[in-house]
Amino acid sequence: MSTPITGTGSAVPAPALPERHYLNATHGLKSWLLTTDHKRIGLLYLFTITIFFLLGGLFALLVRLQLLSPQGAIMTPDVYNRAFTMHGVIMVFFFLVPSIPATLGNFLLPIMIGAKDLAFPRINLLSWYLFVIGGIFGIVALAGGGVDTGWTFYTPYSSMSSNSRVLTGGLGIFISGFASILTGLNFIVTTHRMRAPGMTWFRLPLFVWAHYATSLIMILGTPVVAISVLLVMFERVLRVGIFDPSIGGDPVLFQHLFWFYSHPAVYIMVLPGMGVISELIAAYSRKNIFGYAFVAFSSLAIAVVGFLVWGHHMFVAGETPYSALLFSVLSYIVAVPSAIKTFNWTATLYRGSISYDTPMLYAFGFLGLFLVGGLTGLFLAAAGLDVHVHDTYFVVAHFHYIMVGGTLMAYLGGMHYWWPKITGKLYPEGWSKLSALIIFVGFNLTFFPQFLVGYLGMPRRYAMYPPEFQIYNVLSTAGATILGVGYLLPMIYLTWSWFYGKPAGNNPWNVKGLEWQTTSPPPTFNFDETPIVTDATVLYGHPEEVKVA
Amino acid sequence: MPEAAVTHHGAHAIPRLQHHFDTMAQQKEAATLGMWVFLVTEVLFFGGMFCAYMIYRMWHYDGFVAASRELDLGLGGINTAVLIGSSLTVALGVHAAQTGKQRQLVWMLIATLVLGLVFLVIKYFEYESKLHLHEAHHAAAMVRLFPAAGWFEVTGELAPLAGGIRLFMVLYFAMTGMHAIHMIIGIGILAVILRMAMKGEFTPQWYAPVEIFGLYWHFVDIVWIFLFPLLYLVNRHG
Amino acid sequence: MSFHPQDAELHDHIIPAKVYYAIFAALMVLTVITVAVAWVDLGLLNIVVALGVAVLKASLVVLYFMHVRYASRLTWVVVGSGFFWLFILLSITLTDYLSRGWMEAPMLVR
To answer: Is the reported ipTM for this assembly greater than 0.90?
Structure first.
């Protein structure tokens, strides 16, 4: 187990919490519900998305229980349709999209650039309220029986035939989309206009670059899914037939508009995770990221090229083979910047001074699982191969390796890494390492069999399946149970540490970065004095080492 | 020289300067950039509908032509002039704020408000006329919208083009309706800004809300600049 | 471009009012042209002219009414990327629709 190394070698007093910080500066529910402090808003988001994660996880459990038996163990197909749809809708729109940006991003972005807050603090609070309102609509939809269209809302089923709560659910997604847009807007303006003296673009933490790129996607993509969902809702209310083939409408048009956002959305979900991983790997190798500029620019490249590939979700939907060819080629190209990051992270590890603290364990998990997820994406990008595996569990496994094996691991790693900064407390290392291990084992047991059974032909979104696939499904459900335990443990011990953990001190990991130069927890305006940034603030191995507090 | 003057408790000696900004210049640049980024989202938002329009016009050109000719070009043209005029007045309003001419600022904002309301009133009449039986160009054909039996009904000579006509009308209402909602929101914000202007709150040192509102208003004008030819002028010859 | 925007002087290029009047006049003239051209049969050129005029009008509003002519490079990038992204949506979607019908499915029985 590693202990923080002090630079001076002399006896250092035990860290203590600062007297006044952002958590105790003001008291009472109103001071939280009307706060404009980005750190408090980050915690409000953390609270809300955790609730949605649990809800989405509940539906995952129901799905996996159903699939224990080839005839379907607990639900009719109609109910099953609602279960997997609600799992997808909640996890994508109400957990993954806001996850890292709205919690860690909100909390850390201003501090990392040396600012007192985001550019528009009140709009930040508004975004949380919009998210909550959107979520409430989602829950109302759920209470009314849920949606059964799949999270992709394909027309004409969603617009014309479905008897489920498409309108309410759609409204929830529409409103929470604005939360996303406002967050992205805030991050972009903040990064451009509020950097402290000396904080040049190329001294920015890669976490900031990743969030900047993510914000670009949020701004450019979300409005298109907003109008797509709005047109579907328009259709359901007015029955005018905009996607109705019988009057000459095209259901595939909906898919073009939907995936124009929803493909870049997966980069919204993974890029912040990549930003976290860059920070963790540098910190726990005590080494600057190899090829910083390449990693920074690769985030931008992913954001831009990610907008050009949406048709790879539609290879069998009715788009032409010529269009499919274009999308396929572009999808291979978009893999390149992700590969660059992976190479650079690995190169950073080489000859680094590596510690195996919990956040680093999550980073290692990310590296392996994101690699598998990303490579299987290339299988899917080949249009011919995709004809065989489209809408099978191969696809399901692919995106869960990225979203859960990638983003969620990065989220947990980042949560552990910055927990001392956010709360001022340390968490119990033994429990955290155990949980990471349980999660890793549970994850692979859940999703690796899905690659196999998908390739063998088991379709997704089916409530029952041929008996020869049962063993894979049973293994997967067993894994999911272990995974669930793994996720519950951090919720318990992190909450425990909030109240009873040891004070962390300013820089418990002894790492670079502006956020570690201020107190844990930080004061309301982040710094007692506006920091002046030099290379020594951000680079490892710089001759002028920054003193550890 | 920088205008920041920070007191012990972090409050600024300069009114209107928010605590997390160092100078008024920084604050204004942030606000302006923020509005531009928001307008980009609006371009993509309307853009989705333009995409649907593009595809369906390709597929149903004749239906689009027939439906477009049902729109009142006179009212549409007047509305175009009204909206462009309101862009002029709001630009002159920003100019007045920049040069400290309080009264001119107020009058320009009032003019913008009035023109905006005129646009919406004309729009209302346009929509209202479509609620009733509507004789088309050809006496033997009729396009009827929102009848008791269904939302759109096309009979007579134009019936083979019903699909295209219906799709056009859906997009017409969706696009102009969304545009009108943006106008209504704009007028609401304008009313607030007008009130502030009447109380003399804007100076050449601080007029950011007027300028930023202006950007939003011009954007709404630009959407109409594209809607007008695409909806009203599909084909007026032949 | 100053690195510390917070140190920049609060200075805005003030466009003279007569420029605004001139732009307004141009916009009205272009509107009349747009309407007039719609009555003339130019075949495929009709849509080209209509969109071309609309783009010209929009450009005048953006450059002068919205002050972009005198704005920072960042503003130009922001404005440009908004329209460029719309262009991406429209053009790549068109690659699907324009190529529909190019290839007959061999098994298709009519």
So the answer is: yes
